[in-house]
């Protein structure tokens, strides 16, 4: 082990977060009300545009759960979900005792495959139940095939929940991720492009839905002069302290996006010399990725380069890397559920690796990584 640990994607504070936290302390609004929450929501609404209505919540997972509630997903309903994702995309489907149906990826974005999606919809219709929602993910910051997926969703009149947990700052045809779903979510967990320490937002396209989201996220308390409840609610609101961190982070978002894209160029310079290693990149000019994580896939080669071997070299040098998300249809948790596609995402999992992509990656760390990666053929 040598040198300070290089993390995959650590938090990177901007400078004014403490000022906003101090405001919360000074005014004694340290709980789930206060000006940081209001300002944080407003800042993101302005950033996203396209008539976005934002509710700040305790996590991205909570936001997906609320989205399912808003779409009236109940026990026994089908919900179509991208298989290649972090488990938080799919767990809320189980919270509702609904039935996830998993969809494979396509090769250009690694996200939901339109053909597999349509096959899955037809299967559900044959079972006599139209799916209640499509959970489409923009994984590693790469937007999904928005036009193709939206067209299918419209054709069958199924709402899209856009899981852009990892994609704040990414765009498709110049329009920001977070504005493509009937409901969309973004995460501010500690490892995401910006953070609130832990938190998430739900984005809807109208005020009414956002009011309903806030109501569900605050114990579904009806507006009476006593505590009156007629349906189940949650304690999912973001705190005014976390929102203060988020306000500070929004001030540096543009810088963070550029920095992640610079990291991508850095890796591109290295991997252009390797036929057996592909750096995952935007398929064409319609896609603008925040490159939240830089990921590679390693083809079979004569140099004995494997993801296991690379991971080991990095560990020995105190550098964190991570395998790609293991698809949901291959997880024991989801063993009994249907999957549509040819297992492209399983193949990606088998040969892929995520590389350090933090915005605080120093030049020194980069040279260390470059040196390690220029010496991997044996
Ligand atoms: C991080 C993440 C989530 C969940 O967000 P949390 O804020 O951690 O609950 C959901 N989906 C994806 C794809 C994620 O990466």
From TrEMBL:
| Annotated SUPFAM superfamilies | PLP-dependent transferases
What GO molecular function annotations does the UniProt record carry, in alphabetical order? Answer: pyridoxal phosphate binding; transaminase activity
Q: What keywords sit in the KW lines? A: Pyridoxal phosphate
**Name this protein carries in UniProt:** dTDP-4-amino-4,6-dideoxygalactose transaminase
Catalytic residue positions: 192 (proton acceptor)
N6-(pyridoxal phosphate)lysine PTM positions: 192
Q: Which PANTHER family match?
A: DTDP-4-AMINO-4,6-DIDEOXYGALACTOSE TRANSAMINASE (PTHR30244:SF34), TRANSAMINASE (PTHR30244)
Q: What's this protein's family per the entry? A: Belongs to the DegT/DnrJ/EryC1 family.
What are the BP-aspect GO terms? polysaccharide biosynthetic process
């Amino acid at each position: 082990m040598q040198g300070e640990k290089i993390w995959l994607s650590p938090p990177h504070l901007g400078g004014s977060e403490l000022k906003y936290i101090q405001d919360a302390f000074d005014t004694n609004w340290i709980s789930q009300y206060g000006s940081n929450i209001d300002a944080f929501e407003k800042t993101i609404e302005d950033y996203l545009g396209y008539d976005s209505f934002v509710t700040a919540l305790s996590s991205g997972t909570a936001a997906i759960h609320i989205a399912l509630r808003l779409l009236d997903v109940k026990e026994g309903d089908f919900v179509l979900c991208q298989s290649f994702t972090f488990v938080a995309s799919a767990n809320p489907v189980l919270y509702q005792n609904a039935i996830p149906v998993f969809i494979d990826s396509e090769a250009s974005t690694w996200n939901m495959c339109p053909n597999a999606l349509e096959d899955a919809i037809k299967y559900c219709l044959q079972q006599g139940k139209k799916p209640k929602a499509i959970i489409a993910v923009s994984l590693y910051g790469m937007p999904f095939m928005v036009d193709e997926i939206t067209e299918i969703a419209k054709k069958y009149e199924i709402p899209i929940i856009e899981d852009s947990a990892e994609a704040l700052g990414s765009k498709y045809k110049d329009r920001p991720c977070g504005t493509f779903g009937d409901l969309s979510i973004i995460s501010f967990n500690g490892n995401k492009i910006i953070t609130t320490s832990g938190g998430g937002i739900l984005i809807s396209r109208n005020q009414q839905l956002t009011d309903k989201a806030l109501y569900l996220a605050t114990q579904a308390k009806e507006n009476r002069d006593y505590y009156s409840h007629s349906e189940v609610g949650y304690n999912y609101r973001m705190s005014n302290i976390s929102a203060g961190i988020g306000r500070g982070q929004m001030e540096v978002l543009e810088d963070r996006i550029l920095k992640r894209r610079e990291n991508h160029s850095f890796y591109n310079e290295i991997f252009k010399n390797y036929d057996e290693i592909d750096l995952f990149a935007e398929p064409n000019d319609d896609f603008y990725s925040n490159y939240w994580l830089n990921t590679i896939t390693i083809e079979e080669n004569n140099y004995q380069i494997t993801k296991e071997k690379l991971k080991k070299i990095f560990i020995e040098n105190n550098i964190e890397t991570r395998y790609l998300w293991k698809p949901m249809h291959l997880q024991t948790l989801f063993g009994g559920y249907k999957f549509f596609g040819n297992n492209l995402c399983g193949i990606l999992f088998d040969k892929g690796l995520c590389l350090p992509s933090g915005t605080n990656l120093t030049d020194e760390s980069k040279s260390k990584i470059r040196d390690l990666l220029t010496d991997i053929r044996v």
